[in-house]
From TrEMBL, chain A:
This is Amidase. SUPFAM superfamilies: Amidase signature (AS) enzymes (SSF75304). PANTHER family: AMIDASE AMID-RELATED, TRANSAMIDASE. PROSITE patterns: AMIDASES. Residues 24-444 form the Amidase domain. InterPro entries: Amidase, Amidase_CS, Amidase_dom, AS_sf.
TrEMBL record, chain B:
The lineage of its organism: Bacteria, Bacillati, Actinomycetota, Actinomycetes, Pseudonocardiales. Residues 38-460 form the Amidase domain. PANTHER family: AMIDASE AMID-RELATED, TRANSAMIDASE. InterPro entries: Amidase, Amidase_CS, Amidase_dom, AS_sf. It holds the Pfam family Amidase. Gene3D superfamilies: Amidase signature (AS) domain. It comes from the Bacteria. This is Amidase.
């Protein structure tokens, strides 16, 4: 096994035991990038020199006995919406082609403090506006999309081009690429991780979080990045647990809610079957199942869009007027439309959000977690971004993907996507585990026990 | 002399000196020197005699007020107490629900409305033993600063300000001992300032707004109007606290505002803005505020020049947020009964409907900058404890005037009255208006103190220290009574 | 909000007064089409009985 194939947890154990040097690990990852990046294009910028310097520094520190913890010397990819001092941060847009920030964003500051090695900036759908990431391909099938908007991070982690890819999630943009690329992806609770210095799509819906190969790796990254930051007005000052401590808690005694509506409508049969089988695995491990109805289902997407349209257009207001022709056509159109949404419509969505939050609180009164497909369908072809449903209807891929992931954005609830199988065509399928506010540790325990009981992780993209 | 006759004589002397303050009345009632029934009867008689001149009340609760006063008196006779405000006559702005009575909010749209339950503040006042005298005039849905038809007791040709104009007019004329107001851009402090009273807008989330008709939920605050700072402290003590029924309410412990009220202000750091707050202010106002600062220095305060970043954004962001939130609240009624609104309000609500979502979002972003601007002045090692400014740039405008003179220009009355109060709404900070003199024309002038979130106590201590050295708050308006 | 009638859009130049954004004539049709679709989605909220529900302004995901 090459070093780049290791999990963070395994690599960390070897680094700590001085069986693996951060320099070797980084070189292994950089070689892997050299080998596969031409097919995938996961990165907007590869920062090989920065990575080599950081790896050398980590190696020296560790040799001197100053081991910082499980992320010390671990190669990471950072979504190109995250500001990185001295390194271009383009948001995969011509509008920001020349933008080089002076400061790191909060998450990069924390990852740097934890000793990580940044190997590059990963592609996003332009300004995080879609679930396709047209620059990038899916390592499992190069004809397919990697999902988005954190498509570069999903593809890079799946292909072994980094051990964690940071993402952001406004309508599913961490979980969508995680699901279609066969990685783990966590959208934490709204307010858990600081968004300072990450380009906004929609302030009231944006979340940042990691994509990794395993559940434990996600827990290790959360330990480094979670916590209150006054400079992000959404951040909530609540105690931060040790996300790795409860990983082996299991599911015995937990009640899993299984939806009887919303997540059962217009869903690919292979996806539905895989998630049902996964629920069966959890039951076998001691979980109880309870069928639940998703409340107010028809209002989830109107609320998501009613919030996102005007917030996004407010963020882009000046850039649209100054550089409108530099946006891609779909993003420009989206921004123009958002300009015409009235404030009273936005308020209506804010009020609807309150009702939805109350309704989901009631939904969780009888369950500990909700388990549902992360996405209605696996990765679509990059040449045809449309889903064709059995009833003859079609749906744009982004719309279909956002449909199942938006509830956790509107409610702010944490949601973990874990791989739960493959289609006959060999494309990954994900299930999402949604939990109560700030109950990430419960989600990680459920994900961990499932991951340990199954072998999906053993599969790797052929490339 | 019988005991009854003795009490009557004492009451006569308490009331002959003018209506007592809340603090004085609590003491006199507690000492048995003042009968709650006599006090309420006296207040009701004043309302009957003087309110026709002032139009400060929309509804007077004669029967229920007397009944409550009697129950307080009976309780005292049994050796019991009905609470810290027992027997104190308090008026409520007609936005506060009182079970079984209409909350008209100054609007024909509300005709026929009857509240099912008390607002939280109403309930807390009653539970503290207060006698609710009635409902006071407000600008329609609190969306303005005029409060017609109420008049200013200091000069009935001028407005009392608004939107809590009826409350201020009534307290100034001693038609109640204290009154509740609400404040979205200054609507407690503006009328308090124009009527020579103390007005306290507490921190956003400190006092429940459940059962108080909304104008703009993210800027609305509920608070008291009184004659003295000590009275404001007593009222705040009774009404502050977390209310799960109000989503804006914040679960923050309520300190004791009364015990340390006389602590003094030795070493208090008072920030005096060098930007914005004194830029366009009548010289009479500026002089009075500077004289008030000198009094604070005599009392031991230290003045510090400060700059409040971004505060100049306030007017735009507040008018956008109020416009949008008011339009959202009235979206249904403006379609079903448009003719029931006054022309001004209808025009404002329709204008609010045309504001784009991006403008509202950007107003909330600007608000963040104003919050951070105040934080930079009020926190950290070099931070000040309070910020002192004029409450208003001008004195009371003429009744019926659409514009007022400000910095040599004619501006709409709203723009003349709220520029210095609205920043504390945008930032959610506590702010206290304290009388600090009179203009040559005999109209009241006012000092505003703003503080850190949930630090009403420091404002009250500072305002109280000022009032112990000055007597502006003891002057009475000329109502031809003597 | 059941009393709200369906939207019929005035020419974009009227809406542009509010947004202060000029839409070139050659883009008007596509923008108008998208705007109509967007409003079809969000106007579903008209049927939600909001009552006295306050908005989640400073959104806090906690339930307490």
């Amino acid at each position: 096994m090459d070093a780049y194939e290791l999990t963070i947890a395994d690599a960390a154990a070897m680094i700590r035991a001085k069986e693996l040097s951060p320099v070797e690990l980084t070189e292994s990852v950089l070689s892997r990038i050299d080998a596969v990046e031409g097919k995938i294009t996961a990165f907007a910028t590869v920062t090989a020199d920065v990575a080599r310097a950081a790896a050398a520094a980590a190696e020296a520190e560790i040799a001197a006995g100053a081991y910082r913890g499980p992320l010390h010397g671990i190669p990471v990819g950072i979504k190109d919406l995250y500001e990185t001092a001295g390194i271009p941060t383009t948001s995969s847009s011509a509008v920001r082609a020349d933008y080089v920030p002076e400061q790191d964003c909060a998450v990069v500051e924390k990852l740097t403090a934890a000793g990580t090695v940044m190997v590059g900036k990963t592609h996003t759908h332009e300004f995080a506006f879609g679930a396709v990431t047209p620059t990038t391909r899916n390592p499992w099938d190069l004809e397919k999309i990697p999902g988005g908007s954190s498509g570069g991070s999903g593809a890079a982690v799946a292909a072994g081009e980094c051990m964690v890819g940071m993402g952001s999630d406004t309508g599913g943009s961490i979980r969508i690429p995680a699901s279609v690329c066969g990685t783990v992806g966590l959208k934490p609770t709204y307010g858990r991780v600081s968004r300072r210095g990450v380009a906004s799509l929609s302030w009231s819906l944006d979340h940042v979080g990691p994509l990794t190969r395993t559940v434990r790796d996600t827990a290790l990254v959360m330990n480094a990045i979670a916590g209150y930051d006054r400079s992000d007005p959404a951040c909530v000052d609540v105690p931060v647990p040790d996300f790795a401590a409860g990983l082996l808690a299991g599911v015995a005694g937990l009640t899993i809610g299984v939806p009887t509506n919303f997540f059962t409508e217009r869903v690919d049969p292979e996806v539905a079957a895989a998630v049902a089988a996964a629920v069966g695995v959890l039951v076998g491990l001691g979980a109880e199942v309870r069928e639940v109805a998703i409340p107010l289902p028809e209002y989830i997407l109107p609320t998501e869009w009613g919030l996102m349209l005007p917030e996004a257009s407010a963020y882009h207001q000046e850039m649209l007027r100054e550089k409108g022709d530099l946006y891609t056509a779909d993003v420009r159109l989206f921004l123009e439309v958002g300009e015409f949404v009235l404030a009273t419509d936005y308020i209506k969505a804010l009020r609807a959000r309150t009702l939805l939050q109350h309704a989901w609180r009631e939904l969780f009164e009888g369950i500990d977690v909700l388990v549902a497909p992360t996405l209605a369908a696996p990765a679509v072809s990059a040449d045809d971004l449309t889903l064709h449903w059995p009833d003859g209807t079609t749906e744009a891929a982004t719309d279909a993907y956002v449909r199942f992931s938006a509830p956790a954005n509107v409610t702010g609830l944490p949601s973990l996507s874990v791989p739960c199988g493959f289609t006959e065509g060999g494309l990954p399928i994900g299930m999402q585990i949604v939990g109560k506010p700030f109950a990430e540790t419960t989600l990680l325990a459920v994900g961990q026990v499932y991951e340990s009981a199954t072998t999906w992780l053993d599969r790797r993209p052929a490339l | 002399m019988t005991a009854l006759q003795e009490t009557r004589l004492q009451e006569a002397s308490v009331l002959a000196a003018g209506l007592p303050t809340v603090t004085e009345a609590i003491e006199a009632i507690g000492a048995g020197a003042l009968s709650p029934v006599e006090l309420t009867e006296h207040v009701l008689a004043r309302i009957e005699r003087l309110d026709p001149l002032l139009d400060s009340y929309v509804d007077v609760f004669t029967e229920s007020a007397l009944a409550k006063a009697r129950s307080v008196q009976d309780a005292i006779a049994r050796g019991e107490s009905l609470g810290p405000l027992q027997g104190i006559p308090v008026g409520l702005k007609d936005l506060y629900d009182v079970a079984g009575t209409p909350t008209l909010a100054g609007s024909a749209v509300r005709a026929g409305h009857v509240a099912d339950t008390d607002s939280t503040v109403t309930r807390k006042l009653r539970a503290a033993g207060a006698v609710i005298t009635g409902k006071t005039v407000t600008h329609e849905f609190a969306y303005g600063v005029v409060s017609a038809p109420a008049r200013n007791p200091w000069d009935r040709e001028t407005i009392p300000g608004g939107s809590s104009g009826g409350s201020a007019s009534a307290v100034a004329a001693q038609l109640c001992l204290a009154a509740m107001g609400s404040d979205t851009g200054g609507s407690i402090r503006i009328p308090a300032g124009l009527c020579g009273l103390v007005g306290l807008k507490p921190t956003f989330g400190r006092v429940s707004k459940r059962g108080v008709a909304e104008l703009s939920w993210s800027l609305d605050h509920a608070g008291p109007i009184t004659r003295t700072v000590a009275d404001a402290a007593v009222l705040l003590q009774a009404i502050a606290g977390h209310d799960p029924g109000d989503r804006c309410s914040i679960d923050e412990p309520v300190p004791d505002y009364l015990t340390g009220l006389g602590a003094g202000i030795e070493g208090l750091r008072v920030g005096v803005p060098t930007n914005f707050f004194f830029d366009a202010v009548d010289p009479e106002v500026a002089d009075a505020v500077h004289a008030a600062l000198a009094v604070l220095v005599e009392a031991g305060a230290v003045l510090v020049d400060v700059t409040v970043p971004h505060v100049e954004l306030t007017a735009d962001l507040v008018s956008t947020i109020v416009g949008v939130e008011a339009a959202a609240i009235h979206q249904e009624h403006i379609r079903t009964v448009p003719e029931a609104y006054t022309a001004d309000t209808r025009m404002r609500l329709l204008a609010g409907e045309l504001i784009s979502g991006t403008s509202y979002v950007n107003a909330q972003r600007a608000r963040r900058l104003v919050v951070d601007g105040f934080r930079s002045v009020l926190s950290g090692l070099s931070g000040v404890d309070v910020i002192a400014t004029p409450t208003l740039p001008v004195t009371a405008p003429a009744f019926g005037a659409k514009t007022a003179q400000l910095g040599g220009a004619d501006v709409p009355v709203m723009a003349a009255l709220n520029p210095l109060t609205a920043p504390a709404n945008a930032a959610g900070l506590p702010a206290l208006a304290v009388p600090c003199g009179f203009s040559a024309a005999g109209l009241p002038l006012s000092l505003q103190l703003m503080g850190r979130p949930f630090d009403e106590a420091t404002l009250l201590v500072a305002g109280h220290a000022y009032q112990r050295r000055t007597d502006w708050h003891t002057r009475r308006p000329p109502l031809g009574e003597n | 909000m059941g009393d709200l009638v369906a939207r019929s859009f005035p020419p974009l130049d009227v809406a542009a007064l509010t947004a202060r954004l000029e839409i070139p004539e050659d883009r008007a049709e596509v923008v108008l089409g998208s705007l109509t679709s967007a409003y079809e989605v969000i106007d579903v909220l008209d049927s939600l009985p909001l009552g006295e529900t306050p908005p989640a302004t400073a959104f806090d995901a906690r339930w307490e």
